[in-house]
Amino acid sequence: MMKGGLAGLMKQAQQMQEKMKVAQEQLAALEVTGQAAGGLVKVTISGKHEMKRIQIEPAAMDDREMLEDLLVTAYAEAFKQVEAANSQVMSGATAGMPMPPGFKLPF
């Protein structure tokens, strides 16, 4: 009886590992764009938080300090979008596997 339970747990762990691999591939291919000031500044990052593109409208270039703030704001918005996608994808990958309370995956 215990042997069967262990085999079942191992099978679940293997399935979760396969799902995690697919989830990581999905996140690696993900690109999201955060924007500030109604789209004057846009920052696109990957699912691994790597900056891919920055778009700045000419109107945002008049004030350097404002532009710096808008870049930070746009990046922060994109970062939050990646984190939300990361949580959603990873929760799908671990669905059905009992996780200890407070356990967070390192992705």
From TrEMBL:
Membership in a protein family: Belongs to the YbaB/EbfC family.
* Subcellular location(s) of the protein: Cytoplasm, Nucleoid
Q: Which organism is it from?
A: Polynucleobacter aenigmaticus
Q: Which residues form a coiled coil?
A: 6-33
> What does the function comment of this entry state?
Binds to DNA and alters its conformation. May be involved in regulation of gene expression, nucleoid organization and DNA protection.
* Xref: HAMAP family: DNA_YbaB_EbfC
Annotated GO CC locations:
bacterial nucleoid; cytosol
- State the InterPro entries in the record: YbaB-like_sf, YbaB/EbfC
Keyword Cytoplasm among record annotations: yes
Protein name (Swiss-Prot/TrEMBL): Nucleoid-associated protein CBI30_05810
* Molecular function as annotated in GO: DNA binding
